Amino acid sequence: MRPPAHDTSVLDNAVWAALDGPHAHLAERVGRAARYPADVYAFAALADPRDPAAWADLLTLVGCGTTVRIKPVETVPEDWEVIGGGVGVQLVDTALHAEPAPEAVRLGPDDVPEILDLVARTRPGPFLKRTIELGTYLGIREEGRLIALAGERLRPPGWTEISAVCTDPAHRGRGLATRLVRAVAAGIRERGDIPFLHAAADNTNAIRLYESIGFTLRRRSPILVVRSPGTSRAAGAL
What we know:
Blueprint: H1 14-19, E1 28-30, E2 33-35, E3 44-46, H2 52-62, E4 67-70, E5 81-93, E6 105-106, H3 112-122, E7 137-142, E8 145-152, E9 159-167, H4 176-190, E10 194-200, H5 204-212, E11 215-227, H6 233-237
Parallel strand pairs: 9-10
Antiparallel strand pairs: 1-2, 2-3, 4-11, 5-10, 5-11, 6-7, 7-8, 8-9
């Protein structure tokens, strides 16, 4: 079954589209700026990164002298400092064969310590104490131990991001991650959304795998770590 057709333009600013849409209940927001709680997903977003008023709203939201991760942003106002960043790629489902994985189990809050341990050892990307609240996470266990994981993160209207795809190094080469991606995608398709995902632009092995199972590279975009202007209250108190 091929994915349905949806407007791809919301993916140009996926974090904002999610916070302004299906994840609005999680959003910390001031006007045209929003962010996820720090223990859910460490990203902020602007309705229009070219709008100075949106940056002013972000300053009100995060406060002075605060480090913020934001994407996709090409340039920042002069009084904001770029302190780091990288380049990511976005891929969309165009021909993925989605199907349930009978051996997969749904993970919940009680599984978070074990998820965090697996993520720390495999480094698939950020997963925090409350990230599991973003959507469905599936895992595969062997002898009771979590050995593979995949789940849902951003939810722009009509789309759901597959994230935290990882396998214990001792169990790689068995197709576990692919089975979980297909299973998560099956649940996404059931509610009428289309799967998409992000990867670091230099993670060529992951990109090659995703393309081989039916994802198509859509765009490259910068990820910036910026510091808001001014001095934070904490720094000023020192």
